[in-house]
Specification:
The chain contains 2 helices and 3 strands, in the order βααββ. By secondary structure, the chain is of the alpha+beta class.
Length: about 70
């Protein structure tokens, strides 16, 4: 793990990003206190898209009706 202060990171940002892309753990700190970690962005898979299960879930027409055996509890 490489820790570098923000002040120094400003001038070496391109090199730090390259290191993170190659798998190195790069931590940015202020006054020696770790603040953030540089990590590569993971590409989303097409299957992770919102709404990908559209049409697969069916809701019964009586979904919001109380079942007969639970009427006493309401």
């Amino acid at each position: 793990m490489r820790t570098i202060n923000l002040y120094d990171a400003k001038t070496h940002l391109s090199a730090l990003v390259s290191e993170a892309l190659q798998g190195a753990e790069v931590v940015l700190a202020r006054s020696g206190k770790p603040l953030v970690r540089l990590v590569p962005v993971e590409e989303r898979k097409p299957g992770d898209a919102f709404g990908m299960d559209r049409g697969l879930v069916k809701i019964a027409p009586d979904f919001d009706q109380t079942p007969a055996d639970f009427v006493d509890y309401t």
